[in-house]
Design brief:
Layout: E1 2-13, E2 16-27, E3 31-35, H1 42-49, E4 57-62, E5 68-70, H2 79-82, H3 87-92, H4 96-110, H5 113-116, H6 119-130, H7 136-146, H8 163-177, E6 181-185, H9 193-205, E7 209-213, H10 217-223, E8 226-231, E9 234-239, H11 242-279, H12 283-299
Helix pairs in contact: 4-6, 7-8, 11-12
Length: 309
């Protein structure tokens, strides 16, 4: 079942087209890698899916009630992030519903026996336990430690951290939030080997959908199951991880070059025949080959550019 469907999405700035007729679907729990050269439109597509940027055409369909999380490289521009009292608090705030339920439970407990023995308290506590709320602080510690944020920084204000550390803290908050669709834009840029391995293991263990833009081939091979490639403003989908995608893309490009070569050769022959019959004033034959020439030119596809590596 698809939780995300893109139907003919288009984005342009002035006369420059960034995305053109982008169509794809992402299933519940599926892990997809988004690849393409610099400027191919990867970040723009993620922003459109997240609702932070408007498409100029087409539609983005998402499952009802679906929670989407997007890792932004400029975490310090997020007011909630920059104004948080501590690193630990900002990561913990990713679990919005659990924190809200904690406050509601505390309010009922403050009322004494009447509050604790009420049906509302029992129902709220059951829901809190179902969400594993009692282990929230453990998950926060695991995310911060796994991504290499030193424990002596956990009680610092987020704005006191370096840019790379802030990005890792923002990623930790997203992992604690555990959205239905987690979208990451170059998440490996500020990670050392230990943090990278921890992130790969964590993403594979998740049972929710992932869409990650990355140039890190090994990371994509270890994490994703399918590839979306943005090239020439269009999106193509491929089965398997990055290595499988490369083989499929190279085979597809080879076929396209072969077809283009055959078509160009046929066009040249038809052009020569048109000129021959024109010089011989054989107009019926000339018009016949002109029609063939027109059809060939209309069907001719551009030779594909080199794929992003």
């Amino acid at each position: 079942m698809s939780i995300l469907r893109l139907d003919g999405v288009r984005r342009e700035i002035g006369d420059f087209v960034i995305l053109d007729s982008v169509t794809a679907a992402l299933a519940r729990g599926e892990r997809v890698g988004l690849v393409g050269g610099n400027g191919a439109g990867k970040t723009t597509l993620l922003e459109i899916i997240a609702g932070r940027e408007e498409a100029d055409g087409g539609q983005v369909h998402t499952a009802k009630g679906m929670r989407i999380g997007l890792l932004k490289q400029e975490a310090n521009l997020d007011r909630r992030f920059s104004e948080a009292p501590t690193v630990r608090a900002v990561v913990r705030s990713g679990a919005v519903e659990v924190e809200r339920m904690e406050r509601d439970l505390a309010e009922l407990e403050a009322r004494g026996a009447d509050g604790v023995q009420s049906p509302a308290y029992a129902a709220l506590r059951d829901r809190f336990e179902a969400l594993d709320g009692y282990h929230l602080d453990q998950y926060v510690a695991e995310a911060l430690g796994g991504l290499g944020i030193a424990k002596d920084l956990w009680e610092h204000k987020p704005v006191e951290l370096s840019g790379g550390e802030q990005t890792r803290v923002a990623l930790a908050r997203l992992l604690v939030a555990d959205p239905d669709l987690l979208m990451l834009d170059e998440p490996t840029n500020h990670l050392d080997i230990a943090a990278l391995e921890w992130l790969e293991m964590t993403l594979v263990k998740r049972d929710r959908a992932l869409l990650v833009a990355s140039h890190d081939r090994a990371f994509l091979d270890n994490v994703v199951e399918r590839i979306w490639e943005l090239r020439d403003r269009r999106l193509a989908t491929f089965r398997g991880a990055y290595s499988a995608y490369l083989l499929q893309r190279e085979a597809s490009d080879a076929r396209a070059r072969s077809v283009a070569g055959s078509t160009n050769a046929a066009i040249k022959r038809e052009e020569e025949l048109v000129q021959r019959y024109r010089s011989q004033r054989k107009h019926v034959k000339m018009h016949e080959h002109e029609r063939r020439l027109e059809a060939l030119r209309a069907s001719r596809a551009e030779v594909p550019k080199a794929a992003a590596r």
